[in-house]
Amino acid sequence: MGPDNVLAALDPEQREVAEAVRGPVCVLAGAGTGKTRAITHRIAHAVHSGVVDAQGVLAVTFTTRAAGELRQRLRQLGTPGVQARTFHAAALRQLTYFWPRVIGGDPPRVIESKLPLLIDACRSLRRNQDRSELRDIASEIEWAKVTQIAPEDYAEAAKKAGRTSPVAPEEVFRLYEAYENLRRERHLVDFETILELTAAVMTEHREVASQIRQQYRYFVVDEYQDVNPLQKLLLDTWLGGRDDLCVVGDPNQTIYSFTGATPRYLTGFSVEHPNATVIKLVRDYRSTPQVVSLANRVLDRARTPHKLALIAQRPDGPEPVFTEYDDETAEAEGVARAVRKLVGGGVPTREIAVLFRVNAQSEAYEQAFAKAGLPYVLRGADRFFERPEVRQAVVLLRGAARSAEPGDTLASTVHHILSGIGLTPEAPGGGKAREKWESLKALADLAEDLAATGADLPAFVAELERRAGEQHAPPVEGVTLASLHAAKGLEWDAVFLVGVTEGMLPIIYAETLDQIEEERRLLYVGVTRARAHLGLSWALARSPGGRRSRKPSRFLDGLTGRSAQKSRAAAPASSASSADRRQVAAPISCRVCGKTLAAAAEQKLGRCAGCPADYDEALLDALKSWRTGVAKHEKIPQWAIF
Ligand code: ATP
Ligand code: MG
């Protein structure tokens, strides 16, 4: 897109964002309103009009995929060369560059997971190593580090912050301390330390700070509602008192506060920067009015001061479909059938996503999709280049490249090596084996693509290493299976939100009202990922013939709510192909008493005219009955979140 069209492709408010070329600028707006679009166009406009060089821009976002998309959008706008990175990637590059110059020696090695070090810390303290407990401890250490809390202050701070870790605070403190000692001894850095050290090196070495600040003059942060105190510290250090900063975010999409993120930097932006230009966007360009209406109703029930209701811009589409299944297998098979139907109707698989609360839920879908012959991509689990099979493959390929005996073609050499570690001609069923196969197949496909450009094995390995550095997975076509957390910022034509039950969404260990509200925001994030087709489903039992002990999520009350259950009882006998499911239309019920609302005015209000506006009592009641009704053995470990 040429410089002239950059502004033409925006609505008046988005244009205002793009034309506010000098910071501080804050865009506070709901999902799908074009925040990400506005910032990419703003950067392009600033570069085209000579306000800043492309190299002087640092655009920061939260996931590698989102950073990749930012870069792609910027390239399409004729602005290649802009640095669009995650906080970690940007910091790591700077740290790696300056370390040998100012500290000396090799930079520390990055660890992706805290677990191996924590296991050693346990050994040093002669403590048991229960794996799920270790994951809980790792989350607590992460929280403490992003909140800048030293080990000795952990117990008090955790109590004050209302952390609900099942591990005793004194235990966490001892392990946190041992973990940090081991980490330093072994010259390792975890994600939080990367940010901490980058900020510290800049603070202690003025020449480093001035070099970085000379390079980056123009800062943009997407998804600012999920910035944590450590990221904020680094951002402030990068800025060094300057204010060419543009942030965009949606407080109703804060979904990482359990790790220490907070929307207060977003909502307090104009207090921190009294000269800020604050712009709100309300038009939703992503979703049909039917999806937008559901999203607004989800938000209506949220305890949020930022209602940010969305106004749909797209033409009508299908109504969201709510489906109850007897068990999880039936649910996964039902979703696979619905996906097949969409694909048959011309929706490409890459435009379809199945979103769930915890990664462990993907298993049933992997099985069902493999059985139905539907390609799928699992996102948000291990990063591609961190997967054991990919690491193993890269080591073998690197070795082969060094020995690099001529003769075979690149594709057949790679195939030969990969088949030695599990790449078969046929894809295996589901689960881990399938996941491993998909990773190896992706490597083989990439080799074929590169071979077509004349690349040899060393060139292929160099490309893998470049991608590993950037954490870029080779693109694989297929239905996306992802956790709700991993789906942030993304969009698909069709989205299936599955497992919408009490215990899953909200997740069973969400106890406090704040935690429950974060779960509700996850539902909002999920709903707003859909452009047109949206399915929400749940299963009453875990496995076929199992006890039907599950209940639909409380968040569905008033969306399908009690009336959905009534319709279910009255549902006509289903057809043979869908004997296990009942589809339910989505009548609007009162969010306080649950009665179906017939009057349009009441529907708009979301409650009966006679019911109190303040529904905290109802929320509390629901919480009480949910707590007592939940079987303890169903506890889902915290590590299963992503
Ligand atoms: P989220 O909160 O989920 O991150 P967002 O506010 O960043 O959403 P975008 O992803 O920028 O929203 O935009 C949503 C969709 O709407 C994209 O497909 C984008 O291209 C499209 N869009 C945004 N603004 C416009 C516009 N003015 N005209 C046409 N399409 C638009
Ligand atoms: Mg966005």
Describe the structure.
- The protein has a seven-stranded mixed sheet with strand order 13-14-12-15-16-11-17, with helices on both faces. A six-stranded parallel sheet has the order 3-2-6-7-1-8, with helices on both faces.
- Mean pLDDT is 83; it is low at 561-586 and 612-642.
- Helix 16 (328-344) packs across helix 17 (362-371).
- It folds into four domains: 3-91 and 195-280, Rossmann fold (3-Layer(aba) Sandwich), CATH 3.40.50.300; 109-186; 319-380 and 479-641, P-loop containing nucleotide triphosphate hydrolases (Rossmann fold), CATH 3.40.50.300; 384-470, no CATH class.
- 46% of the residues lie in helices and 12% in strands.
- It has 642 residues and is of the alpha/beta class.
- It binds adenosine-5'-triphosphate (ATP) and magnesium ion (MG).
- Adenosine-5'-triphosphate (ATP) is lined by residues 10-11, 14, 29, 31-37, 250, 253, 285-286, 489, 491, 528.
- It catalyses: Couples ATP hydrolysis with the unwinding of duplex DNA by translocating in the 3'-5' direction; ATP + H2O = ADP + phosphate + H(+).
- Belongs to the helicase family. UvrD subfamily.
- Its EC number is 5.6.2.4.
